[in-house]
Design goal:
The chain has 23 helices and 26 strands. The protein is α/β, with parallel strands linked by helices. Strands 3-4-5-6-7-9-10-11 form an 8-stranded parallel beta barrel, surrounded by 8 helices. Strands 14-13-12-15-26 form a 5-stranded parallel beta sheet, with helices on one face.
């Protein structure tokens, strides 16, 4: 495959064309140095065979942002340790240098003085106006700091510098943000002047390093901080002439919603930036890469064969499976665990945590989580074929145990088989497909359509039993709940119950909101009733805007702060927070009031000395992430 072919950039040979594009991980130490967690993550990627790793958002100044920083010589050693680890696997390491689009010194002082409210006010102001208020002298100082950062990176053994063409650099390039009237504003030449001056300064500061530029492109619908799509090819030629040796073409952001650059499932098509990258590639002679919803090797290979790009950036897919290159080289591309674009990794960063992939329990914990071969091979029974049970079966079998899995349904996947029904959610199917494929490859015996009983389990003489029987939809004791017009959200999504006309969904959590979307798409007139003051509280920050836009476009009514008191044949009677009665006309009512763990009688097993552990929702109702992690941990402990 072309994806495994070497490529020469600036006289340096990269072993293949797989690239980890810049990501914010949240793994770094408090001062921005490379922590053990961060080093373990990137080292694991290098071990998996990726040819080029770029550390995202490396700041040349001390700031409060949770990104890597390289502003002091004392931090060089942590970067050197990482470079040595990455080089041990013949991968190249780059750092993406950026400067925030705000007055870092002023905001740091406010932080030091405990002026949190002023920090928020200043940030809100600077994100829009700093690009126009920063002085020319300050811009020259910023270039000096970025060059000093690059020199430190070179001392650490880093191979490449990538200039972040969004953030401050992109804001200056932008027609939407830059209103300056000096040499850095107005025409395209002026707006890109700072970027080109930075390129020239870096060429002088670190002439022996590869110089790359992230070409952030503002499309007609998305982005602010970058050059307009129509100007991107021309600007690319200027960058090449100035000495840039590689371009990474990607969606510009600066909108406050990371979903613009890292879109969740169903929001953007696959390979959504490939055509724009291809237009840039036609204008230059240096290598071009792109990223954005490139889910599997077939997509990646297709872009290379079509001449759209020279390298492939895969971010979230490498979180899901760091062994892309190894598996491709071994002819086992079908064994790759694919990203489902759920964006929980991105939302974790937005919530102040660190990235951790939903489908890969080891991601974010590479230093401490790894599957170890079993010292004593055992007979293991897994009860339940949802994501928790499938992951437990996979890990247990991979350790060398003999595993039998019971699933009382005629298909694997559990709740994922209804989670994939609402609008934009069909990509969840990849999780089920990949888990089912994995347990088949590991030799797990699957007893489909068979409910596990004490007798059938004991007949296998197991050493341990993992219970993963999931949860069920909770139906509260409300007057009228047994009415002929009342439906179960899970059964509606499964196609077992039908509704039409005016529908009230009771419960505004994730299941309730997604059910509301599904029914609105079917043509129903939908209202959502939620006891709390907010709907969709579990929905991630990068996913929520699309959901709320759908609600608006489909006129889905929201009754937050309302408690259902009674259900009749033609209305739902609620009480609002002021104690007032509110009546909502309806033809059907769909209950989505949360889940409750399903219980499995384990006493007959434990009475015989068999080790039993519960995982997933039957242990504690949560989400797919917890299902996978508890399944992994329980099986790996055997």
């Amino acid at each position: 495959m072309n994806i495994l072919d070497p490529i020469t950039v600036g006289g340096v040979v990269f072993k293949n064309r797989l690239m980890l594009p810049p990501l914010t991980t949240g793994y770094e130490a408090k001062d921005g140095s490379i922590s053990a967690q961060s080093r373990a993550f990137y080292t694991r990627l290098a071990k998996g065979g990726v040819g080029y790793i770029v550390l995202g958002d490396v700041a040349p100044i001390p700031s409060f942002a949770p990104t890597p920083k390289l502003f002091d010589d004392s931090q060089i050693e942590s970067f050197r340790l990482l470079a040595d680890n990455v080089h041990a696997y013949d991968a190249k390491l780059g750092v993406q240098i950026f400067h925030p689009e705000y007055d870092v010194d002023a905001i740091n002082l406010m932080f030091a003085n405990g002026q949190q409210d002023q920090v928020r006010t200043r940030l809100h102001h600077d994100m829009q106006h700093f690009v126009n208020e920063v002085t020319e002298d300050a811009l020259m100082t910023i270039i000096e700091k970025m060059c000093a950062c690059a020199v430190r990176a070179e001392k650490a053994g880093v191979d490449a510098i990538q200039i972040h063409g969004d953030r401050l650099v992109g804001s200056l390039c932008s027609t939407k943000m830059n209103t300056r009237t000096d040499q850095f504003g107005g025409s395209l030449e002026n707006r890109t002047r700072f970027a080109l001056m930075l390129v020239q300064a870096l060429k002088k500061a670190v002439p022996n390093m590869i110089l790359e530029y992230k070409l952030a492109v503002v499309t007609p619908k998305l982005g602010k901080g970058g050059v307009d799509e129509a100007d991107a090819p021309l600007f690319a030629t200027w960058l090449e002439a100035a000495g840039v040796q590689m371009l990474h073409v990607a969606q510009a952001n600066h909108t406050g919603n990371l979903a613009d650059t890292i879109p969740p499932m169903g929001v953007q098509p696959y390979c959504f930036f490939a055509d724009i990258a291809g237009a840039v590639k036609q204008a230059v002679s240096i290598p071009v890469s792109t990223s954005g919803r490139i889910i599997d090797p077939e997509m990646a290979e297709g872009l290379l064969q079509a001449g759209k790009v020279d390298m492939i950036g895969i971010g979230r897919p490498l979180l899901a499976d760091p062994d892309w290159a190894i598996k491709i080289a071994a002819g086992k591309a079908k064994d790759i665990r694919r990203c489902i674009s759920c964006n929980e990794c991105v939302d974790a960063i937005m919530n102040g945590s660190f990235i951790a992939c939903v489908v890969n329990a080891e991601n974010g914990y590479e230093e401490v989580r790894m599957i170890s071969p079993a010292k004593v091979k055992k007979t293991i029974v897994v009860i339940g074929g949802g994501p928790a049970g499938l992951e437990a079966a996979r890990v247990a079998a991979k350790k060398g145990h003999s595993v039998t899995l019971f699933e009382n349904d005629i298909k694997l996947g559990g709740q994922l088989n209804i989670a994939n029904v609402p609008p934009r959610k069909s990509e969840i199917d990849r999780a089920v497909e990949d888990l089912a494929h994995a347990i088949h490859c590991e030799g797990v015996t699957v007893r489909m359509g068979e409910m596990a009983t004490t007798q059938s389990v004991l007949a296998l003489a197991p050493d341990a039993v993992i219970v993963a029987v999931g949860a069920s939809n909770f139906i509260p004791a409300i007057q009228g709940i047994d009415g002929v017009n009342v439906r179960n959200a899970w059964k509606v999504l499964a196609g077992e119950q039908a509704v039409s006309g005016r529908v009230v969904v009771v419960g505004g959590g994730m299941v309730g909101c997604e059910t509301a979307e599904y029914l609105a798409e079917q043509g129903c007139q939908v209202s959502v009733v939620e006891m709390s003051n907010k709907i969709a509280s579990e929905v991630g920050m990068t996913v929520l805007p699309t959901m709320l836009e759908f609600f608006k476009d489909h006129a889905i009514a929201q009754f937050t702060g309302h408690k259902v008191i009674n259900i009749t044949a033609d209305e739902v009677i609620c009480e609002n927070q002021d104690g007032q009665t509110v009546k909502i006309p309806c033809d059907y009512v769909v209950m989505a009031s949360g889940s409750r763990s399903v219980k499995f009688d384990t006493a007959p097993l434990t009475d015989k000395g068999i080790s039993v552990v519960e995982i997933g929702d039957c242990r504690q109702v949560a989400n797919i992430s917890q299902a996978i992690k508890t399944g992994y941990e329980a099986a790996n402990a055997l």
